[in-house]
């Protein structure tokens, strides 16, 4: 995809998120409207800044799809926070006493919905790094 077109799509996504944040109304707890608006803006800023140096067009496309999916879910359920998912039993990580096979990592990665890709915690990243370090 053309670099200019990709840049335009990313900019449009960011603008859309910011516009949604200003018009956001909390449904269940109207007193939390301002808190949710600030959460949406801060999340957008944080994730866009975190990924500003991404050059791979496929990875940029993944991030755009993730952003669009999160917008659709937030607007549909009127909840700006990420939704929990039910992963199949076989994709959950086993206890830390045994070695995991590559297919288990691949299955776990494929089972994770696109709208949760940016929510990998630091602990998960550190665990993955420790498992691949030579002793």
Automatic annotation (TrEMBL):
Domain Complex 1 LYR protein, first and last residues per copy: 9-72
CDD domains cross-referenced by the UniProt entry: Complex1_LYR_LYRM1 (cd20261)
Protein name, per record: Complex 1 LYR protein domain-containing protein
Source taxon at top rank: Eukaryota
GO cellular component, one term: mitochondrion
Protein family according to the UniProt entry: Belongs to the complex I LYR family.
Source organism per UniProt: Rotaria socialis
